[in-house]
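anyone seen this seq b4? input:
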Amino acid sequence: MGLFGSSSNQLKCKKCGTVLSDSERLKKHNEKAHNKKKEKCRICGTEFDTQEELRKHKKNCK
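predicted toks r here
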């Protein structure tokens, strides 16, 4: 399923057509660009675009 000839490892976002180099980047792209749901810290209420950002925040939230 190569989009650009020999570049068969590239993936295309089904929602906007953005081409990304691997599935992890596609997952993060979808979270940031297309996921309207916010991740919320249960301690302070701060909202984040991704679970990864929330996870990093939690390390220092008190």
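The CA atoms of residues 11 and 52 lie 21 Å apart. The helical segments are 23-34, 51-58. kinda curious what u guys think
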